[in-house]
Amino acid sequence: MKFRTIFSLVIGGFAIAASAQGGYQDGVDYYNADRFDKAKTILEKTLNDPSTDKAVSYFYLGSLDMREGNTTSASENFNKGVQANPSYGYNYVGLGEIALKNGNKSEAERLFKQALEGNKKDAAVMAAIARAYFNVDPTAYAKEIDKQISNGMKASKNKEPQIYILQGDMVKTSDVGRAAGLYEQAMIYDEESGNVNPEAYVKYANLYNKANADFAIGKLVELNEKLPTSALAQSELAEKYYDGNQFTKAAEQYGKYIKNPNHFQGDEQRYSGLLYFGKKYQESLDVSNQVLAKDPENEYMQRMVMLNKAALKDYAGAEEAAKKLFSHVNAKFTATDYTTYGDVLAELNRPQEAIDAYTKAYELNPEKNKQILANISSMYTALENYQKAVEFMQKFVDAGDASLNDYFILSNRYKNLGVSLPEGSPERVEAANNGIKYVDMAIESAANKGPLYRNKATLMMVRDGAEISPELVETYQQMLAAYDENPENKTKYADAYRSAFNNIANYYLKAGDKEQARVYFEKLLEVDPENEPLREYLKKL
Question: N or C: at which end does the chain have fewer Cβ atoms within 10 angstroms?
Fold first, then answer.
């Protein structure tokens, strides 16, 4: 299976949330970095934790509602935030944005003013007010946006990070270089005050990820060093390694990240996939089983269990996982799902069922899954249905991209078919000749020609029966010459030498050339010294 294909199936989504133990701040960080689904999950999970600042969480939950166009729910959340802490100005900003959206600018201005009542020089709140104007209509409220940014710059002596982040967001689609510079300013000014701004780092890295992935990754490595427990920092680095095809590092980083209480099930699923492709099958299987313990019907992890158990040669276990996987009626299955299942069934000596699985795999995309035709051919050979075995191997070779070994295999398929047909029948002769045709194609470019010549000789005997033809003798001579290039072959392929010497000797004997027959019978005795009947025969000859 293609690497990206499996991940499109393995990740699935973030339906099951992270643990609440990591704190609401991770949700805030995810929101600010535009990871809204993750933000919502964490903020909702952590809302009732004793350590949660509810005024903050309600503001971000309301902001998420605004993004979804649900102003009623947003208003409820912002008002709950006001009740939780009336001095936290951001919930008034949220209510002001709703007023703006409803066309009530004067009410919005009143609420924005109320947001600043506790601290009239709070530049971060001014940045939030500017963002509210920007969210509703950046063109209609351009003056108001500029005014809030100007006031914030003056109040902070040009050092408020949130203003730089807002300005970066405003131009990131039109001027990437300027946006990067603004995010960098936010990082610098936050760190001057002893803080680290993960939002700025992540947005900065995302700008560069496609143009210079290594640079983006370097920035996120820096963020992880400064905020080693941040779920956002850990997950962004893991994803950037993955996006950059650095799968070994991605697996290592995901291994760290999933120990964070605010990781997601989808991250565990991706980690399992990365471990599998890193051939760490048992580790991948362990992660899959951990997910299944919480989510028993998770088809993505059932797939990974099947793949891992097949790789670990636990074929019974792989079959059990496959049955669970294929029980999902509405699931989308891949060719690899079916080919893996076919491989498992083949190992369990159930060739007909393997053929059924392979056929489904092939039908999903015949052009890309041509190799499966060869698999089907092998299963028909196991069933001793040699006609079908030839038919599918021939289809595979005819589809193109066949190797020398494929020609050799096809010649063997024809040999098996020929042997199964009546001796001397036209069908048997045709099968043998087809086999010879393909073994000759393999011989043309093969480095090790000995086994191919031997196969050709066998096909000639299938075709010609007991008659030893000059063509057969020549083929055996070619086989011997190929094998003689390595002296060890005389021992390694002793049976091939015996067959050749015996047939060549009998050819000369039948032709009346006893001297040549004796030469080859003596060669046969050299490789078969225990053959006492031959020794006695030579004495008489």
Answer: C
